[in-house]
């Protein structure tokens, strides 16, 4: 089966199953031909192998099978996902770009209808619900009404896209979080494609425009987050070039102790894998613990791959996966076909396999302890017993004296309550990480029930919310009889979508917010989410802790993060007796019995019965066939035709005498670069909205306005917590214009530079672009005139996004930093780029101080593939792909 030069050749084979014939690309003959070691490829790389074989890329297949020789490769391969998953924050700008490409196609004399996704694209509207109302019986209804009031224009645009584009499906609001809907409803695990009367089978693989797309790896579907622009290119048939990754094996053994949840396991793994260093690598789980680890627990672990830094955290499908498919409503016929295909291909885990890995780590689940992560990153794990000590240390660093203050009388319900440093003011059971996990949700509900029975209550000053990840969660909580217990402690259902951990936590009570501001109180949020970066959860909470749903409930009852929940009481019952957490924690038998009773197939079937219809507000947005091109409304502050295809050339030569727009330290997240939350009243974006007749009450969020480039450019680097070292001691998106040194908002200063035709660069430290997959974190700087970002290193997705928008990602030489160079931001920067760029080549960068002194370094151009070089030359992915489509269509492409 070896072709000329040792390249692998393949022939299609037929799988006969239950009277039907299916075509597939066989893996077993290819692995056998490649040698005994090739049979021990990690499961995730076997899926990659099938992908490149099906593309006919036998050269790439040889690279994959050759990986086993050293369990490492410098090779580059093309990857074509089977489908794309989007959420609305990242999906709206993607559909805006597709609409703009149709305009571009028409302008070039082609047929706009030819611009369509080539592969299935699902967009789940889940990121726009905000917890405006909480702790009330009608919270859900009020929040849905607010959501449609704010977002009608965006939603109408998505309805147009749903009708105008082929291969594009929209799951309306109130279905749940996209990753949970993907896990429980969308993912087939094995794809079927009908072509010319032949059905082809192949593994389900997915790119998502949200970094937590990795959750689907818990089901055995290989998938990870990419930038919106990469996803658009893949949807339009562009193979995405990627370096063949190292694969870190994680051997799991043992069983968790009583009281340990999947959240505790993933926080422990996040700490361990961050310490190991798995950025840009696949992680694959194996070992005897998988024989009894439910898919819901696997999904919890896979979800947080961005937090431990991996491209994905993969669990091979096995018998428990087939049980989960049945539980969640996939047909028996489909499940039998899936198992037959996976077994034929050697992709079904049976337990005796011993894959080869680049590195192997081990975790005995019996060693895991109840855990909390915070107060600023998901990798800051603490044993539950250590949280009080570490939070007190954080308060001491903030010089909080511990005094308790009366809240005030504006809200009579709060008149007798006090507020002090370390108090919990926000407690949210939210996020795909945990609301997909029935054991975690039922444990939280049982804890609430037992707390009620002991007479415990949650303080009125705490904003409490329950945001189930899907309607199925509500169905099984109803069957368990636990919704009343959640409700009694203030945890009313507030919406179905991503809320608190994306920054959609909504306002705090007026008196609480006033007191925090007036007294500069350091207060806390506890959430069962996956993100707690500074300024993300709420502008009022400096301490933000991630933990399991039951521990969110426990901290809400305790009311503070300074109490040790392992040794101090949550509160006192009506008889004055202390109530310890251990007293009300559900035992395993009770939980198992309730799981068996309530987490049943009917709960999922009823939860998803009408998921594609949407609520009444969605159904009234209009039906009928949409025009091929979108009718842009120039007065709209939500949807605007972007400038990506209007002839802005790429970087094709040296960058001379650029100015530094901002000088940043370590850990600048995509939230810092392009915030998703509140639009500050004094910001350039607010000024723009006011000029267009939008009142502050109608500002909505940056995330909801990602379809308008004019708003998002003004929101770039506008996070209230970002710190620009050009203005020491400052917070917020401000900088200086040089050579005059005038201070101003980053957008305003960038606009001045653009008028002066001065190119810009951004300088940063380590982990630049960490956090959520966010294409606007690359699009925004592009609109500000940024030509390059020079940092110590980059987060994987953001580096690719920068390349996709035509911005050069460049890294300092090892041991060289902005600090070692003594950069102040006043320097001019020149980057020598040869006419012919190469991946990962060295480039000369010269920093010239105001006095003329020069410092020269040899920096590394972090473009990894030839395709990325082409993106840079043509101004980004979208112009590149449009050119390809128009050439294929025969249109005039002489720009």
UniProtKB/TrEMBL annotation:
Into which EC class is this enzyme placed? Answer: lyase
Keyword DNA-binding in record: no
Upper lineage is: Bacteria, Pseudomonadati, Pseudomonadota, Alphaproteobacteria, Acetobacterales
- What cofactor is this protein dependent on? [4Fe-4S] cluster
Q: What is this protein called?
A: Aconitate hydratase
What are the EC numbers? 4.2.1.3
Q: Which domain of life is it from?
A: Bacteria
Catalytic activity reads: citrate = D-threo-isocitrate; (2S,3R)-3-hydroxybutane-1,2,3-tricarboxylate = 2-methyl-cis-aconitate + H2O
């Amino acid at each position: 089966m070896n072709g000329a030069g040792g390249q692998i050749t393949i022939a299609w084979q037929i799988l006969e199953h239950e009277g039907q014939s299916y075509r597939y690309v066989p893996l077993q003959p290819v692995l056998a031909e490649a040698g005994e070691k090739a049979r021990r490829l990690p499961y995730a790389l076997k899926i990659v192998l099938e992908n490149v074989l099906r593309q006919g890329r036998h050269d790439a297949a040889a690279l994959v099978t050759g990986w086993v020789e050293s369990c490492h490769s410098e090779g580059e391969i093309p990857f074509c996902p089977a489908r794309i998953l989007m959420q609305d924050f990242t999906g709206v700008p993607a559909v805006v770009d597709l609409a703009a490409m149709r305009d571009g196609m028409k302008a070039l004399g082609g047929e706009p209808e030819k611009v369509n996704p080539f592969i299935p694209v699902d967009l789940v509207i889940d990121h726009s619900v905000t917890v405006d109302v909480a702790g009330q019986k009608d919270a859900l209804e009020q929040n849905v009404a607010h959501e449609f009031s704010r977002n009608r224009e965006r939603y109408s645009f998505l309805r147009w896209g749903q009708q105008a584009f082929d291969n594009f499906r929209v799951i309306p609001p109130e279905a749940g979080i996209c990753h949970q809907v993907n896990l429980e409803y969308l993912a087939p695990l094995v794809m079927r494609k009908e072509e010319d009367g032949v059905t082809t089978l192949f593994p389900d693989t997915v790119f998502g425009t949200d970094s937590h797309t990795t959750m689907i790896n818990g089901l055995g579907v290989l998938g990870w987050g990419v930038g919106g622009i990469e996803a658009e290119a893949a949807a339009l048939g562009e193979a995405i070039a990627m370096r063949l990754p190292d694969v870190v094996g994680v051997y799991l053994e043992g069983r968790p102790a009583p009281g340990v949840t999947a959240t505790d396991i993933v926080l422990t793994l996040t700490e361990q894998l961050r310490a190991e260093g798995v950025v840009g690598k696949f992680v694959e789980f194996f070992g005897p613990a998988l024989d009894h680890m439910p898919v819901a627990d696997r999904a919890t672990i896979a979800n947080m791959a961005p937090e431990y830094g991996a491209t994905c955290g993969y669990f091979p499908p096995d018998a428990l996966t087939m049980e989960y498919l049945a539980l969640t409503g996939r047909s028996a016929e489909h499940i039998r076909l899936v198992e037959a295909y996976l077994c034929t291909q050697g992709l079904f885990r049976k337990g005796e396999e011993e894959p080869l890995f680049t590195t192997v780590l081990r975790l005995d689940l019996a060693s895991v302890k109840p855990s909390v992560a915070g107060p600023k990153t998901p990798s800051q794990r603490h044993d539950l017993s250590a949280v009080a000590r570490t939070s007190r240390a954080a308060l001491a660093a903030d010089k909080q004296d511990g005094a308790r203050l009366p809240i005030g009388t504006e809200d009579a319900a709060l008149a007798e309550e006090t507020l002090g440093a370390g108090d919990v003011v926000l407690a949210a059971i939210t996020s795909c990480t945990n609301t997909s996990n029935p054991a975690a949700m039922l444990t939280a509900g049982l804890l609430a029930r037992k707390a009620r029975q002991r007479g415990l209550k949650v303080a009125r000053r705490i904003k409490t919310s329950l945001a189930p990840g899907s309607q199925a969660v509500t169905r099984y909580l109803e069957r368990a009889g636990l919704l009343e217990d959640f409700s009694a402690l203030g945890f009313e259902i507030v919406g179905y979508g991503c809320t608190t951990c994306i920054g959609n936590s909504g306002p705090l009570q007026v008196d609480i917010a006033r007191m925090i501001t007036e007294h500069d109180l350091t207060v806390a949020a506890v959430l069962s989410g996956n993100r707690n970066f500074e300024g993300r959860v709420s502008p009022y909470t400096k301490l933000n802790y991630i933990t399991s749903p039951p521990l969110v409930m426990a901290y809400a009852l305790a009311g503070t993060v300074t109490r040790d929940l392992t040794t101090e009481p949550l509160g006192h019952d009506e008889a004055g007796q202390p109530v310890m957490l251990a007293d009300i924690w559900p035992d395993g038998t009770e939980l198992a019995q309730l799981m068996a009773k309530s987490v049943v197939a009917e709960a999922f079937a009823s939860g998803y019965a009408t998921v594609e219809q949407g609520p009444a507000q969605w159904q009234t947005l209009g039906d009928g066939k949409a025009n091929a091109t979108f009718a842009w409304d120039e007065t709209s502050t939500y949807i605007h035709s972007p400038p990506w295809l209007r002839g802005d050339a790429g970087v094709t030569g040296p960058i001379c005498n650029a100015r530094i727009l901002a000088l940043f330290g370590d850990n600048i997240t995509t939230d810092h670069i392009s915030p998703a939350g509140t639009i500050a009243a004094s910001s350039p974006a607010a000024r723009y909205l006011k000029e267009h007749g939008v009142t502050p009450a109608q500002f909505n969020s940056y995330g909801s306005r990602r379809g308008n480039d004019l708003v998002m450019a003004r929101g770039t680097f506008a996070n209230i917590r970002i710190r620009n070292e050009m203005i020491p001691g400052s917070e917020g998106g401000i900088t200086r214009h040089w050579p005059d040194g005038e201070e101003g908002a980053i957008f305003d200063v960038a606009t001045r530079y653009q008028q002066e035709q001065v190119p810009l660069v951004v300088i940063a430290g380590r982990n630049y672009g960490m956090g959520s997959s966010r294409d606007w974190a690359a699009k925004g700087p592009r609109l500000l005139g940024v030509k390059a970002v020079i940092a110590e290193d980059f987060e994987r997705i953001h580096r690719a996004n920068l390349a996709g928008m035509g911005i050069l990602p460049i890294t300092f030489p090892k041991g060289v930093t902005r600090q070692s160079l003594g950069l102040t931001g006043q320097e001019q920067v020149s980057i020598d780029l040869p006419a012919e760029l190469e991946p990962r080549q060295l480039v000369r960068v010269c920093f010239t101080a105001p006095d003329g002194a020069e410092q020269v370094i040899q920096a590394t151009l972090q473009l990894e593939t030839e395709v990325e070089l082409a993106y840079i030359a043509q101004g980004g992915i979208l112009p590149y792909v449009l050119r390809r489509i128009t050439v294929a269509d025969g249109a005039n492409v002489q720009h």
